[in-house]
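Supplementary Methods. Inverse-folding protocol.

Structures were first reduced to a discrete structure-token string of length 238. This string, shown here, constituted the complete conditioning input.
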């Protein structure tokens, strides 16, 4: 079964646009879970322009499903996740000024850094996932870090999907096969939506988890949050 983790960063972006506490991020996390999300993802960035460090601490006790925290493993990020102890930490190589994540790790180049970070997190019982593109060399080297999973960066799949879906999915099938053969779990995320999610799932049914934010929260404006989460879950159902 492929789990749906809802990234609630966009709820925080909307809240931050006005100050105050509308919409309420904590209530959104509670409701996403009540409406069927299998997990909640947050991505605190150093400038706290979406989810703030304080949000992450406040959300932790209300998580009844799975808590995934994404981010660049700076000292402050690591201190946060080690105090909050989510179920999973996804390591992302974000530059400080990135609007959103726009690349996976070069694992070979960052092998010793990633290995150190993974070791620290796993010692605390936190599952790790490393954000990567489909480059086979990256995935073949991922087990050297000790990571449990990789997360495939799906923006290139999403942008190629309407031109030629079969061509767009091909490198992802190959990458996910290599990961499976190496005993790594496979997550996927970025620009997944109601057009491309079912096809991804049908072609790589062994994906453990997708994390989806932008499109899902945008769809919820029209369809409602409960309905939207249920529709996304149905894309992963068969
Ligand atoms: N995975 C990672 C590592 C991300 O950085 C993001 C965006 O915060 C996502 C998944 C979700 O992407 P989207 O908002 O396009 O669904």
């Amino acid at each position: 079964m492929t789990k749906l983790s809802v990234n609630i960063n966009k709820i925080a972006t909307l809240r931050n646009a006005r100050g105050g506490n509308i919409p309420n991020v904590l209530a959104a996390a509670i409701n996403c879970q009540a409406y069927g999300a299998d997990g909640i993802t947050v991505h605190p960035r150093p400038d706290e322009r979406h989810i703030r460090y304080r949000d992450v601490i406040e959300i932790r006790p209300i998580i009844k499903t799975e808590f995934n925290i994404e981010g660049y493993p700076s000292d402050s990020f690591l201190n946060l996740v080690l105090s909050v102890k989510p179920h999973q930490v996804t390591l992302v190589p974000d530059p400080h000024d990135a609007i959103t994540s726009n690349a996976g790790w070069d694992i070979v180049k960052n092998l010793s850094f990633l290995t150190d970070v993974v070791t620290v997190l796993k010692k605390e019982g936190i599952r790790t996932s490393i954000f990567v593109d489909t480059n086979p060399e990256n995935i073949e080297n991922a087990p050297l870090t000790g990571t449990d999973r990789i997360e495939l960066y799906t923006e290139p799949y999403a942008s190629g999907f309407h031109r030629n879906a079969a061509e767009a999915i091909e490198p992802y099938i190959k990458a996910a096969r290599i990961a499976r053969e190496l005993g790594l779990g496979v997550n996927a995320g970025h620009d997944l939506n109601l057009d491309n999610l079912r096809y991804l799932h049908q072609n790589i049914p062994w994906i453990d988890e997708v994390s989806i934010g932008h499109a899902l929260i945008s769809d919820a404006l029209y369809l409602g949050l409960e309905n939207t989460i249920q529709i996304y879950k149905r894309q992963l159902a068969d």
